[in-house]
TrEMBL record:
<dbReference type="InterPro" id="IPR049680">
    <property type="entry name" value="FLVCR1-2_SLC49-like"/>
</dbReference>
<dbReference type="InterPro" id="IPR011701">
    <property type="entry name" value="MFS"/>
</dbReference>
<feature type="transmembrane region" description="Helical">
    <location>
        <begin position="228"/>
        <end position="245"/>
    </location>
</feature>
<feature type="transmembrane region" description="Helical">
    <location>
        <begin position="290"/>
        <end position="311"/>
    </location>
</feature>
<dbReference type="GO" id="GO:0015232">
    <property type="term" value="F:heme transmembrane transporter activity"/>
</dbReference>
<dbReference type="GO" id="GO:0016020">
    <property type="term" value="C:membrane"/>
</dbReference>
<dbReference type="InterPro" id="IPR020846">
    <property type="entry name" value="MFS_dom"/>
</dbReference>
<feature type="transmembrane region" description="Helical">
    <location>
        <begin position="104"/>
        <end position="124"/>
    </location>
</feature>
<dbReference type="GO" id="GO:0020037">
    <property type="term" value="F:heme binding"/>
</dbReference>
<dbReference type="GO" id="GO:0097037">
    <property type="term" value="P:heme export"/>
</dbReference>
<keyword id="KW-0812">Transmembrane</keyword>
<feature type="transmembrane region" description="Helical">
    <location>
        <begin position="159"/>
        <end position="177"/>
    </location>
</feature>
<feature type="transmembrane region" description="Helical">
    <location>
        <begin position="197"/>
        <end position="216"/>
    </location>
</feature>
<keyword id="KW-1133">Transmembrane helix</keyword>
<feature type="domain" description="Major facilitator superfamily (MFS) profile">
    <location>
        <begin position="1"/>
        <end position="341"/>
    </location>
</feature>
<protein>
    <recommendedName>
        <fullName>Major facilitator superfamily (MFS) profile domain-containing protein</fullName>
    </recommendedName>
</protein>
<feature type="transmembrane region" description="Helical">
    <location>
        <begin position="317"/>
        <end position="336"/>
    </location>
</feature>
Length: 351
């Protein structure tokens, strides 16, 4: 149930935020860690909402755009996370001053999440009175059994290939995001502020990429072609980023980061929507949930590999390895058949 899932995720985020409010004293670090853990667990319920909400509430010509805007919202939160803490919490103050800054930030976040939770509780509905499309109507009429859906998904060749390619792409993005400061500071010592801004640029460019890719999917309905093009462009973006790092001009790194973020993060809603197409009529929440779970595994492994390679062979070969992973993911994407089941159901209903 979309409403129940969203309420659980929102409540957990709100609860974790309030726990962190009371974790400011130095001897309460454990409480802050607990609050952050509650927020992290709650994120599992929220990450899967965009594709499911889009499929339940929007018609066939709007579903991809709606999904991309949902992903845009997630990325907006990440972007605010890059900007807000440095603005609110001074790094050079005394311990009491830093504690006061942290308390203010935690109260703001807790207040915002509380208002959001109340709004969701009062106004968020599970589904519209009538299905917005024939595909949504048919999907609602079918019984949903998680274990049966899981069995169908893991035996679906196209979905398994998409799982691997999606994991490689987003896992690579996680690795870069996690170790971006280390990579930037290798060539531009002391550029801590620039490293943070470059991270923000990657996320903001990705927000734009998410929306643009969603609009393209709704206009063309060419899911495989769009997925493959965005994936290949991610390889090009990563190559440009790799070979411009040592140019000596950090402004060039900003520009290459825009290209990298636009396509690599723009791939997120494209992957969600392609998965929904090749697995229909299985629930979008299940398909996206498995995608997100696999991404976490790929992200951890890729980040650890990237960190080890940075310390062993340097950033050039480390980044080229990531380029190789993306190229491999592009080849896997090319092997996925364009079996657009949701589109077929929609077209059959019109006939």
């Amino acid at each position: 149930n979309l409403r129940v899932t969203t309420i659980i995720g929102s409540f957990g985020t709100c609860l974790g935020a309030w726990l962190k409010v009371f974790s400011v004293p130095q001897d309460m670090f454990w409480l802050g860690f607990t609050g952050q853990t509650v927020v992290a667990v709650s994120q599992v319920f929220i990450l899967n909402v965009p594709p499911r909400l889009a499929a339940v509430w929007f018609g066939a010509d709007q579903v991809s755009s709606a999904c991309s805007i949902g992903v845009f919202g997630n990325q907006l939160g990440v972007a605010v996370g890059f900007v807000l803490p440095p603005m609110l919490v001074g790094a050079s103050g005394t311990i009491p001053e830093i504690a006061a800054d942290l308390r203010l930030m935690f109260y703001l976040i807790a207040g915002f999440t509380s208002v959001l939770f109340v709004f969701i509780l009062l106004f968020f509905k599970a589904a519209p009175p009538t299905p917005p499309s024939a595909a949504a109507d048919l999907g609602n009429s079918l019984d949903s059994n998680f274990l049966l859906s899981l069995k169908k998904l893991i035996t679906n060749r196209n979905y398994v290939l998409l799982l691997i390619s999606y994991g490689l792409n987003v896992g690579t993005f996680y690795a870069i995001s996690t170790l971006l400061n280390q990579v930037i500071l290798t060539y531009y010592p002391g550029a801590n502020i620039d490293a943070g801004r470059i991270g923000l640029v990657i996320v903001v460019a990705g927000m734009a990429g998410s929306v643009v890719c969603g609009l393209i999917l709704d206009k063309t309905h060419r899911f495989k072609e769009t997925t493959l093009s965005v994936y290949a462009a991610s390889v090009v973006g990563m190559l440009i980023f790799t070979f411009t790092l040592d140019c000596g001009y950090i402004s060039v790194v900003y520009l290459s980061s825009i290209l990298l973020g636009f396509f690599m993060t723009g791939y997120l809603p494209v992957g969600f929507e392609f998965a929904s197409e090749v697995t229909y009529p299985e629930p979008e929440g299940t398909t996206s949930g498995i995608l997100n779970a696999v991404v976490q595994i790929f992200g951890i492994v890729t980040t650890l590999l990237y960190e080890w390679m940075l310390g062993t062979v340097g950033d050039r070969w480390s980044n080229l390895t990531l380029c190789g992973l993306l190229a491999f993911g592009t080849a896997i994407t090319a092997a996925i058949r364009s079996d657009l089941r949701r589109q077929a159901a929609q077209n059959n209903a019109k006939e």
